[in-house]
Structures are given as structure tokens and as C-alpha cells.
Design brief:
The protein is an alpha/beta fold and 259 residues long. The chain contains seven helices and five strands, in the order αβαββββααααα. The protein has one domain: Collagenase (Catalytic Domain). The protein has a five-stranded mixed β-sheet, with helices on one face. Strand 4 and strand 5 form a beta hairpin. It is globular. The protein starts with a helix and ends in a 6-residue tail after the last helix. It binds zinc ion.
Length: 259
């Protein structure tokens, strides 16, 4: 699949999320499911599996890193606040078991907003702990769904359904996220088709000009605490790639209201 076709699939899948992100037949009238809210309150449940209880702090740290990635990708227009038990929340993250079908899950209820629940698989079917990097990937992937991203068919994108288990957002992921948030809810793919095609053309041209390959954006080991800073710096430079686009969309993004 060409880069162009992949981006179209990725974007259309995002319009379809909540209906069926994997549907081959896209509905022309499906709408985006985006969280226009800042801060977004995130409750992270403790790990209750007795053998992995001591991982609660580590996984909480991974969630924080993943949320920081998304804030950076959205140029800090959306921030995330980790809430204590019992406080109101928008997203909820629980820890569970991987099964045959999925390594993680994001529930998008019909009245999807504001509460979305994610389950991240931390033990495999034989009850062995899942690799840290895989846990981290699944956290980023499921948060991507909660923020409104569908599936990509490019294996280096974090939203790939069956790819390389990327542990940071690719330039495609960031581009699609910024594009969707510049469109806003209540618009259909059909409404925005021309705008979407124009943005993809511009993005692919920019990528070509800067000779950026998506693979280069994948951090080697972002989950080691001392690499945290360099990861965020890297993300800043990735989102620079797309800033040209955001400037055009600033009016719409400024409509975000802090509550
Ligand atoms: Zn998925």
C-alpha cells in the first residue's frame, strides 16, 4: 500500500472508530470521536495480580510517558492529569491478561464521552509477564484509540494493528492526530474529503523534502527512565515536522477550552 493510501485508510478508520475501526467498508457519514477537553483526567488502577503488584509504579510511569507523548503531539493543547482513586475521570486504565484476540483493549461506549476504559495486557495466556516494551506499546496504542485514532496499515505506526510494536509515535501518527483535531467532531469524512487530500499532499511533500523516514522516529528504548528527556526532545522535533500544518489550523485548535 502506498503512503498515500495508508494515510487515507488510517484517517477513514479514525472516522469509523466506535462503529468498527477495522471495517473495510467505511461509512461516509461516520463522525470523529475526539476529546476536546483539557486537562483530560486519567485514572490508572493499581496492578492487582499478586505476582506483579510491585509493577504499579513502573506502569504508572509508562502511562505518564505515553500521555506526555500525546500532549507534545497535540502541541500541549490537550494536557493530561492523573487522578486519584474516587476522583472524576475521563479515561480509565486497567491491567489484565492478553488473550488470543488482543494485547489490549479500549472500550468506546456508544455514548462514548467522557468515560473510556482501557485494559492493557500485562501477562500472557500462560501468566508470564509481558515484555516492558510491549506493555508500553499497548499503552500508547490504546490511548491513541481513546483520543480518536483508528488503525494504520503501516507497520511502523503506533496505531498499526499488527506491526512492529512501535514505542513512540511516528510522524504519520502525529500528522493524523493533528489533522483530526483540526477537523473536529460532527464532521464526516465526506464533508472534509478535499481538505484531507490537500493536507496529505502537503505532508508527504514535507516528509520528502526533509527526507524523514518514519523508522527514524522510533526511539530505541524510551522506557528507561534516564532516556525520558531525550524521548520528549525527540517528540518535540517530530511535532516540528507538522507545525506548518498546525499554524493553519490554530484557530480551530484554540477553541479548546480548559475546564
Ligand atoms: Zn487497535
Amino acid at each position: 500500500m502506498s503512503d498515500y493510501d495508508n494515510l487515507i485508510t488510517y484517517i477513514r478508520s479514525s472516522f469509523n472508530i466506535g462503529i468498527d475501526a477495522d471495517a473495510v467498508q467505511f461509512s461516509e457519514n461516520s463522525r470523529l470521536k475526539l476529546i476536546y477537553k483539557s486537562p483530560v483526567n486519567v485514572y490508572v488502577a493499581p496492578v492487582i495480580l499478586p505476582s506483579l503488584k510491585d509493577r504499579t509504579a513502573k506502569y504508572l510511569h509508562y502511562v505518564r510517558l505515553a500521555l506526555d507523548m500525546y500532549s507534545a503531539a497535540l502541541l500541549n493543547k490537550i494536557e493530561f492529569n492523573i487522578t486519584e482513586y474516587g476522583e472524576p475521570f475521563d479515561f480509565e486504565i486497567n491491567w489484565g491478561k492478553v488473550n488470543r484476540k488482543y494485547a489490549g483493549k479500549c472500550y468506546l461506549p456508544l455514548d462514548w464521552y467522557p468515560k473510556q476504559s482501557m485494559v492493557i495486557g500485562i501477562v500472557d495466556m500462560d501468566n508470564n509477564p509481558v515484555d516492558d516494551a510491549d506493555v508500553f506499546h499497548v499503552i500508547i496504542h490504546e490511548l491513541g484509540h481513546a483520543l480518536g485514532l483508528g488503525h494504520s496499515s503501516d507497520k511502523y505506526d503506533v496505531m498499526s494493528c499488527c506491526g512492529e510494536y512501535a514505542t513512540s509515535l511516528s510522524s504519520n501518527d502525529i500528522f493524523v492526530l493533528q489533522l483530526l483535531y483540526s477537523i473536529g467532531n460532527k464532521r464526516s469524512f465526506k464533508d472534509e474529503e478535499k481538505y484531507i487530500h490537500d493536507c496529505i499532499d502537503e505532508y508527504l511533500l514535507e516528509i520528502k523534502k526533509k527526507s524523514i523516514r518514519k523508522k527514524e522516529n522510533i526511539s530505541e528504548n524510551p522506557i528507561t527512565p534516564n532516556k525520558q528527556k531525550s524521548l520528549i526532545e525527540k517528540l518535540d522535533s517530530i511535532s516540528d515536522v507538522n507545525k506548518y500544518r498546525i499554524l493553519l489550523q490554530d484557530i480551530k485548535l484554540n477553541a479548546l477550552v480548559k475546564t
